[in-house]
From TrEMBL:
Protein keywords: Signal
The protein's name in its UniProt record: PAR1-like protein
Residues spanning the signal sequence: 1-24
Annotated Pfam families: PAR1
Organism name: Cynara cardunculus var. scolymus
Record keyword Oxidoreductase present: no
Length: 178
């Protein structure tokens, strides 16, 4: 049963790539959920797997277009090899920088198999890390030389601290909630 699912997935991926070549365009909303995550539309925007509740009350999944534009990359469906090498899950809904706090996740992203061969996934995690005030190349270098120390430094950097301050970026108190 698993081999027939794998065969179907491979056949579908090949068909999607062939269809992309003949039509010349990737539209996230037209992609099957199995290849949605870590894909980039012809417009350069990332594809995003989202869930919804259907009429029967069951959770369904759909591929949508995010507003995030990837510079220097478009019309791209991530390979299964990169998904495996980077330790990411194509079936997860959304993505979080929380994975940067897990030593095993950082190790996979920073591994040569991922970091040197999977620019799409590395770009995504580079931006997630930057949003948390972390420079991914530096984190990967520290992770390669001393994994335990890299995680201690990351945790002590304030990236993983508690809730957001009540002051905004200009130093003024945040508006009161109603």
């Amino acid at each position: 049963m698993a081999s027939s699912f794998f065969f179907s997935l491979v056949l579908f991926s090949v068909s999607a790539i062939f269809l992309q070549g003949t039509l010349g365009e990737i539209v996230c909303d037209d992609l099957p959920t199995e290849v949605c995550s870590f894909s980039i539309a012809s417009s350069g925007k990332r594809c995003l797997l989202e869930n919804f509740e259907n009429n029967n009350g069951k959770t369904g999944y759909q591929c949508t277009t995010s507003e995030v534009v990837v510079e220097r990359m478009a019309e791209y469906i991530e390979t299964d090899e990169c998904v495996k090498a980077c330790g990411v899950d194509r079936n997860s809904v959304g993505i979080s920088s929380d994975s940067l706090l897990e030593a095993q996740s950082v190790s996979k992203i920073c591994s040569p198999a991922c970091y040197q061969n999977c620019p799409n996934i590395v770009d995504l995690y580079f931006n997630l890390a930057a949003g948390e005030g972390v420079y991914l190349p530096e984190l990967c270098e520290k992770q390669r030389s001393n994994p335990r120390r890299a995680m201690v430094e990351l945790l002590s950097s304030g990236v993983a601290t508690g809730p957001v301050s009540s002051e905004n970026i200009h130093g003024a108190p945040a508006p009161a909630s109603i």
